[in-house]
Amino acid sequence: MNLIAWNCQGLGVALTARNLKEECFRRKPHLVFLMETKQKARVVRKIRRRCGFVEEWLVDPVGTSSGLALWWSEELTVNILFSSSNIIHTSVMSTSLSTPAYITFIHAPTDEGDRLLCWQEVRRIKNSIMTSWLCMGDFNDILAQDEKCGGLPKAWRKILNFKCFVEDCELEDLGFNGPCFT
Fold it and tell me: What CATH number does domain 3-168 carry, 3.30.70.580, 3.40.50.300, 3.40.630.30, 3.60.10.10?
């Protein structure tokens, strides 16, 4: 299964929408997760159609920030099990999967207190899963100082909080594809 997760920081910019369309046609993903769409449903739906997807789940932005979009191809059956402003938790079936795969899409808040609440919700989700599980998105946190570029170093307390979250949920960093720090 081919997936794309992108913190697009606004789908209203023509270049962003064009780049997304090009990536979708080049990589042919089965599922696309977009963070910070910053657009109402009608704009996101128009871009979804241009990218060749029929199915969707949207979380509207708050004012001019945030917003999530999940698009998937017709060959998948996606059931939304939980949705909030930062999390979309799903069960995914396809002809190639004998059992459902659980995928949790995350766009963690930048505020530390809100992020810790988000981690608690993901821990709760983890406790309900007894089979394969993938978490993907923008966690707005780092596991080591070398994952940060410029600015002041991240407080060790924050790094340790994120490490504890990753360990509690038995997650493994799979890395990424593309330029660093994007």
Answer: 3.60.10.10
